[in-house]
């Protein structure tokens, strides 16, 4: 799978390596593990942070290319099955910086997004540079409170969440929602040596019910979310098995931990033209202990049911294959008997 060779297309790296190797993840890694690995490497090799290192630009391109394969369930399946050859005729999607698009291209991107075509975007280099230089305004967001705002497209509002040792031990959740269903990114920054902030984590908003939302979980246990797109893709690939795929969208969220102190988050406007309205809140898991335990129980039952469905599907397909084999054998034997009878008479 890890063959090397020249690639076609201006956005492709000069040489291609196994995308799992590039992102330093295993073949059974979850979507969230792949996303986390990509974000860390993209930040490490981002051209704006490595202006004097031309090699970093190629590494950044290779990381982005690898992620474009592994972040797409269908392309990942194709690569796992037949390597790069299966992708030769596929258009490889790259993340785009909306701040560099002209008005016409932005209109086309907005139209495709409206039609349901996923458009992956990056955080504006201007926002990253201002954060890295420490020139951004940070508003305090005490744990247990929320703040509302409206952020311009390709701009960001920064918030400082200060947590105690007890809160760090219990776990923290930071969540942003938009009742206007705006597109936005929830960002988490780490303190740099120079006093600035470097992008460490990023979550794109997703439509959940009548709102769009994104959350980051700094807990000591795993939590899950239902990704409807995974269910839809699984059902589209095999409509006959749609019944068995209903719980495939239950995906683990990226979970980290935080130390006591002040941590920097931001809401980034990702709409194509208009500002993004949002509400951001910081919560301590200790305040929701009963709900948390109940949620763990429900998630455990859903995971158990998903395993049951997978086992049932295996048994169903085995029984179906035996039935089809028996039917085919019966049809063949029937045709032979008919032929014999005709021969006799």
Automatic annotation (TrEMBL):
PROSITE patterns: DNAJ_1, DNAJ_2. This is J domain-containing protein. It comes from Aegilops tauschii subsp. strangulata (Goatgrass). It holds the Pfam family DnaJ. SUPFAM superfamilies: Chaperone J-domain. It is found in: Membrane. Residues 18-83 form the J domain. GO terms for cellular component: endoplasmic reticulum; membrane. Residues 288-329 form a coiled coil. It comes from the Eukaryota.
